[in-house]
Amino acid sequence: MTGVLSSLRYLLADIIGVDDEAPPFLPVGLPEGAAPIVSEGIHLLIDYQGPSYAGLYVHRLRRFVGRRGVDDVMLGEIARLMVMRMSYEDPIRIAQSKLAEAEMASGAPNVRFADDIRKFRLDELIGALPAIVAEPVLDAL
Question: Is this model's pTM higher than 0.70 or not?
């Protein structure tokens, strides 16, 4: 029940635009080898949805810290996979990231940013549309 309530709290904080929690710290007892992965995950999730969502990531990750049979490598992999699952990269999110890169680069004339090209599947692009538009398109296809 507490998991459902905490998820609702994160959702409502995102909807009303209030997320004044402090950024979370690395979990106590985290192996040194997993710290860079977890730290990067925290920063990504703060950027993705805010400090409280990153706190949820740390809370979920604590269940695996110090657990018997979970070594440094496995914990690092769990942390990496968990952050990937908690931060879905849809076409809109990727466009927002690219625009933020371009804004940062506009202030520095000698900065060159990645010119990677993403190719999306048709269902990914249609999924980004409002349901009232997407459903007839999917039905036609």
Answer: no
